[in-house]
Amino acid sequence: MDHSSHESSAARPVNAFKLEASRRQVLAVGGISLGALLLAACTSSPGTGSEQSGGVPQKGGTLRIAISDGSSSDTLDPGTALTGNVSTIIKAIYDPLAVTDKDFVAQPALATSWDVNAAATQWTIHLRDGVKWHDGTDFTSKDVVYTISRWLDPKSGSSMNAFMSPYVDMNGVSAPDASTVVLNLKKPNSVLMQTIGNSLSHIVKEGTTDFSGTTVVGTGPFKITAWSPGSSWKVARNDAYWGGAPYLDGVEATITPDQGAKLQSALSGAADVTDLIPISLWAGIQGRDDLVLETIKNQRTWIYAFDQRVAPFNDPRVLDAIKLATDRDKMVETALQGHGSAAADVFIAPDSSWNPPGLKPEYAPDKAKSLLAEAGFPNGLDIKLSVTDSVPGMLDAAQAWQQAVKGAGINVTLDQYSPDTYWSKGYMVTPAFMSYCPQVFPPSRFDASYRSTAAWPYSHFSDPALDKIVDELYTTTDPSRQIELTQKAFLQARKTFGILLPVWADAAYARSSKVNGLFITVDTVDFRKTWLA
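-> structure tokens emitted (533 positions)
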């Protein structure tokens, strides 16, 4: 592993609100969650989901969903969605400009098409005609410009700011007519629409400032009828939805933080579907006729991050040793009970078309021992890893890693924080900590965690060689070349950054057998075609 371009980045001040928001916004952009999910800038993309078929769709009925992650501070502002609860309802009442498919290709939503110039410095977005807000008024380019202004305003707290503000400011945003928006960028970004489509980029109505209750309107398939933050909500069918009225009369959600109680609500028939449940509870669903365990392959990766500004993680040999010492197959077997895949330290799932061809993780404990000896640790290395049990599965993954590196003489002590303190005192504050991220649009990870200007620099490190590759990527409009450069950049990052990504974990949720047409993937829950038998 070559660290020839090793260069420490300058320390960045810690913004407690930004850290708390960022770990939750994973969920907002990463789909419905289990418990208090995690961290920074993980905007995720559709992977395998389930779209059931049980006969001819029937209109009517209310779907009941049990969600574990909600807060009394929840609001209906898409830009600041901090829980899986908000993520789910936002996707029911609002629409984005675009979405991404399983191959991360941007597909139309409120935008029907878009054009980029050869220099990747100007995007022209063409909007869908005939779309109505829930209050009956017309959706126009003014709404998009207003939403973008909120993305670019750091005071709004929008998760989109990290991905938009480096490339565009309001001086470059214009609306030549009611159905067109033009973005003139400060510097090239050839993957802007994929980033938007892969993010929680839902459009709000011009002038909206109050997101606290049922007066909020969207353009989505459902209208909000009841809202009790952190407790429950209800939505009703939007008969005038531009994509066709849903089959369901509505959806009712109940926030059930306890994982066991959430599953029990499905087992008893009190809920028709749950959000993601821990692997340890899967056995309680399997083999039943009335309840189905729906699995999402490679839904998320566990992250082990090491601050390269401080010893011993400022020594490339130590970072190499940590990676070589990790028995990833053993972690899949123990922490994931076989429900996952060994990974090779890139934010791309092994089954993705974006994954570097032939990339395999290397397990070499003897080589790791030699590197540690060279670095001044002939008798082994002690690491204190910050974790929390508030994220289901994190503690299991931490304990599995603790065992997986023992053979190379690495002794890991787990420093467990409470849910109230981890995200402000452990995550991105201590020298070694854990987090996790669902599948993402791969290039979005560079602005999030790897570039010199990264919004959430996990390892507090920068690599000029990586920046150069990403700069070329962002000026390239050829899709094949974009994939090649993304692969090249991740191969560079895995050599130089103190970020260990040892496994991809499968995920699952419970669904009543009477529920059909429900589509849940790594980044979305879609009720538009759902119906009840």
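The first strand starts at residue 7 and ends at 8.
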